[in-house]
């Protein structure tokens, strides 16, 4: 446990799920004058796949790569995109409903050869 400068205490938890699924647990915290039970549920989807995109375009001409985002969960997603690297652009936020696939339009505008 560690103090963060406020009246709170951080409780680091390490969770390594063996497979996709729903995992529930209870955390019991006791002190001389208080007892608290926290119930936690973790929903784990399939392994995340690393992807690599290669952009080939003539100098100074932009190219758009539509990246499919498939929501196979049971809740709607509001995803925030953080793009790093010169010349890359795309919407800062996209919404993907349950069971939907939305294309994220990643644009690359090269400024040099």
From TrEMBL:
Name the chain's protein. CFA47 protein
GO annotation, cellular component aspect: cilium
The Gene Ontology biological process annotation of the record reads: sperm axoneme assembly
What lineage is on file? Eukaryota, Metazoa, Chordata, Craniata, Vertebrata
